[in-house]
Write a structure and sequence with these properties.
DUF883 domain-containing protein; 80% helix; mainly alpha
């Protein structure tokens, strides 16, 4: 029988979602600082310097687009992995429940009855306390 909370092997060559998010946040913050510095210089620039700044700005904008595209792709990958894990855990839980019910049908029925009574009391108990139905 499968058990809950079993340890999973850690992959040495992949970053955790938290580490990936932190790295992406740092890259985004660095890009933001570069753009802020460029915007601070822009009002005082004229002629050739302004054209250079414009080229630099377009370079940063392209870098930002790549970063955003990469972030979207990585987020989609993380979502797929999490969805796969959830489906796997759901299937494992279903298998555990089925094996328990098959091994202990009477105990499972009593547990279901108890849970039903508790939920019914919790959900509908207030309507009977005040005397109205």
């Amino acid at each position: 029988m499968k058990t809950w909370g079993r340890p999973r092997p850690a992959s040495a060559n992949t970053m955790t979602p938290d580490a990936t998010a932190t790295a992406e946040a740092n890259a985004s913050r660095d890009l933001s600082h570069e753009l802020d510095r460029l915007l601070e210089r822009l009002p005082g620039l004229a002629g050739e310097d302004r054209d250079k700044a414009k080229v630099e700005f377009l370079k940063f904008a392209a870098k930002s687009t790549r970063t955003t595209t990469e972030l979207v792709a990585k987020s989609a990958d993380v979502a797929k992995r999490v969805t796969g894990r959830v489906k796997n855990e759901w299937e494992t839980g279903r298998e555990c429940a089925e094996s328990f019910v098959n091994a202990h049908p009477l105990r499972a029925a009593w547990m279901a009855l108890g849970v039903g009574i508790l939920l019914g009391a919790k959900l509908f108990g207030h309507s009977h306390r005040d005397g109205s139905f």
